Amino acid sequence: MNEPLQPETLHLQVDREHSGLRISMVALFFAVLVIVFLITNALIASEGFNILAGIIAFGAAAIATRIADPIMKRMWPSKRNGRSSSNERRRPECKVRACCR
After folding, report:
1. Alpha-carbon distance 64 to 32, whole Å?
2. Which residue has the higher pLDDT, 99 or 67?
3. Which of 12, 15, 26 is CA-nearest to residue 69?
4. Euclidean distance between CA atoms 65 and 82, whole angstroms
5. First to last CA, the chain
6. DSSP 17-69
7. Per-residue confidence at 25, pLDDT binned at 50, 70, 90?
8. Which residues fall within 8 angstroms of residue 27, CB to CB, at 6 or more apart?
9. How far apart are CA 55 and CA 19, in angstroms?
10. Fewer CB within 10 Å, N- or C-terminus of the chain?
11. What is the reported pTM?
């Protein structure tokens, strides 16, 4: 009937954009950039470097990365979490012992 009160605990993600997610977004950007550039370069004939194909490839890579970012954040969350309860009281760490007395 009278259960002991449990302290409220707050769970937060410490690292929402972890390094694996960042690296995969950069890899996705360059993969889409190269693939779209090769396809558009083959479709649009020109001598030398095809600037139009480069612009189209850059835009497609930016759009694909923008769309994939929130999807990847939901599918691949960070495993690092911070936890704080309402009854915990934390003192900041002091590097000089004389000031903490």
Report:
1. 8
2. 67
3. 26
4. 28
5. 44
6. S-HHHHHHHHHHHHHHHHHHHHHHHHHS--SSS-HHHHHHHHHHHHHHHHHHH
7. very high
8. none
9. 28
10. N
11. 0.63
Rg (CA), the chain: 25
| 11 three-state secondary structure | strand
Please count the helices (runs of H) and the strands (runs of E) in the chain: 2, 2
75-85 confidence digits (pLDDT tens): 877 776 666 66
- CA dihedral of 53, 55, 61, 65, whole degrees rounded to 10: -170
Extract the tokens encoding 29: 């950007």
Both tokens of 3, joined, read: 């259960």
- For 26-62, what is each residue's pLDDT tens digit? 999 999 999 999 999 999 888 888 899 999 999 999 9
